[in-house]
Amino acid sequence: MEIKQAFGVILRCYRKKANYSQEKLAFDCNLDRTYISLLERGKRRPTLDTIFTISRALKVSPSALVTDVEKLLVNKNSSLS
Amino acid sequence: MEIKQAFGVILRCYRKKANYSQEKLAFDCNLDRTYISLLERGKRRPTLDTIFTISRALKVSPSALVTDVEKLLVNKNSSLS
After folding, report:
1. Are B58 and B25 in contact (CB under 8 A)?
2. CB A1 within 8 A of CB A77
3. Which has the least CB within 10 A, A52, A73, B15, B33?
4. This prediction's pTM
5. Which residues contact A66 (CB under 8 A, 6 or more apart)?
């Protein structure tokens, strides 16, 4: 699993937990709804700025999000080897 | 202080702690030495992939790096207000 894919999974998970639509998250972040969708599908590589912006909107810390990406990568990639 | 500037400060701090030159870090990351220099001077916005690559080379976790960026931003930006 690639980093951008793991990020997409975690982003979707946090967004759903916050009960936000892609539209609402995009609006709060001043980003395009399509870009949120691409991120969630692992089609774009987020910058640190984007991670901070999205984290703020979802009321989580950027490092919590990155920690979950790390964990997912460890789990997915170790179960494949 | 902007996110990219905070990242640059933290990156330089971790690199020096590891006793790595920009050249060595760039070589280990398969990145250009100039790009490391631009990141450290806050002139480029790192992607999550770059943060993972650099963290691996410096033997720290990506989330530890991001946590330090968060802390620096809180400190710098609260002392300015």
Report:
1. yes
2. yes
3. B33
4. 0.93
5. A51, B48, B51, B62, B63, B66
Q: Of A38, A5, A3, A6, whose CA–CA distance to A22 is shortest?
A: A38
Interval A5-57: pLDDT, tens: 999 999 999 999 999 999 999 999 999 999 999 999 999 999 999 999 999 99
User: Quick one: which H or E segment has residue B58?
Assistant: helix B48-58
CB contacts, 8 Å: B61 with chain A: 67, 70
CB B32 within 8 A of CB A25: no
**DSSP string of B1-40, one letter each residue:** --HHHHHHHHHHHHHHHTT--HHHHHHHHT--HHHHHHHH
Q: Which residues on chain B are in Cβ contact (under 8 Å) with A69?
A: 48, 62
Q: Please give the Cα distance from A66 to A52 (Å, whole number).
A: 10
Residue with tokens 């806050």: B42
Cβ proximity of B58 and B20 under 8 Å: yes
Contacts of A56 (CB under 8 A, 6+ apart): none
CB–CB of A67 and B69 under 8 A? no
For chain B, give the number of residues: 81
